[in-house]
Structures are given as C-alpha cells and as structure tokens.
Amino acid sequence: MTERLAEAEKTRNQVVIARAETSNQLSAAFAKGLVRLYQDVFAEPPYEEEFSGEEVAAIFRAYQKSGVLWLASDGIETIGFCAAVPLSGEPEISELAKGSLQDTDNTWYFADLGVKREKRRLGIGTQLVTTMLNLLPAETVLMRTTSNNVASIGLNTGLGFEVIPGLTQEVPQLRKDGTTATDTRIFLLKEVNR
User: Fold this and answer.
1) Range 157-160 contact pairs with CB under 8 angstroms and sequence separation of 24 or more
2) Which of 66, 87, 88, 111 has the most CB atoms at less than 10 Å from its CB?
C-alpha cells in the first residue's frame, strides 16, 4: 500500500492538466496519442466499443468547439481527457433530462472521461473531474455512464454526483467484435457549489 501511495504522489507531481483551447493544442495532443487513448479506453470493458480515428478526432474537435476539453499529460504522451458541453448542445440528452432537472439552461453535460490504463488509480481521473467542476460556468452538471461501470459510478459519486432514479437511456454502439449492441446508461447529477 505504501508503494502505491508513493507512486500516486509521484504521478500527481508529474502530470500536467491543461485545457486544450486551440486547434494547435488539440493537434499536439493527437500527436501525443489522444486518439489511440480514447480508442483504448472505450475498447475495454464495460463498453468494448469500436471507434475509427476519424470519429474520435471529430468528437474531440466538437468538444473543443462547443464546450471545454481538459487533457492530462506526463510530458511525453496524453494520458487522460475530460470534456463537457452545455446540455443544450446535446438535444437528445437534454430532452431525456427535462423531467429530472429544474433548470436545463444552466446545466452542462459531462461528456467524457478517460485515463490510460497504466495510469489509473493514481488520482488523475479525480484531478480531471475536479478541474472541470471548478471551472465550468454551470450550476449543475449532468453525466451519463453505463449502468455496470462501477469505477465511473464510484469516482463520480465520491465527488458528489448523485444517481437520478429512473432516468436511463438505451445506447447502441459498434463493438470490437463488429456487432452493434445496446447497453443501459444511467444519469448522475451534481449541483456545483462555488
């Protein structure tokens, strides 16, 4: 346990979390493995999803254009990402959430989080989410994760997100084996206290 704590402290000191605001910053992150990182993160259980490089690049360009994108780097490669967009930019999710939210106009959607497998359990995901929560111009933040993603649910409930009872979405996605499968996503909400 002491070795793990020492490794976590060393990693925290070496990781830089920065907002990718320009196309040059995003291109630099692509060159340092951001596309591959996204593909690897979502190819793992519980998602086991398949994304082309073009799809991933388009996802990150959209986050940068309409929302905010934070990246974690160890100086050599991109090792984590976290993105959020105004809920109004996600019409399908906004419509689903209307009955559960009092004010969708001041709500942001926490769209993505991922950390390189070898760098997990060192606090990087927590750093990314905390940075996002501290800097978003939002009163509430809504997120979605698959119902069996224990790690995501644990991390986010530990940071104050609460599961919205009864609010779910069935999401079809191409899997690594070439089939399309549907899984149940649950929603969590956090009131942002400044």
Assistant:
1) 157/188, 158/126, 159/126, 159/129, 159/130, 159/133, 159/190, 160/190, 160/191
2) 87
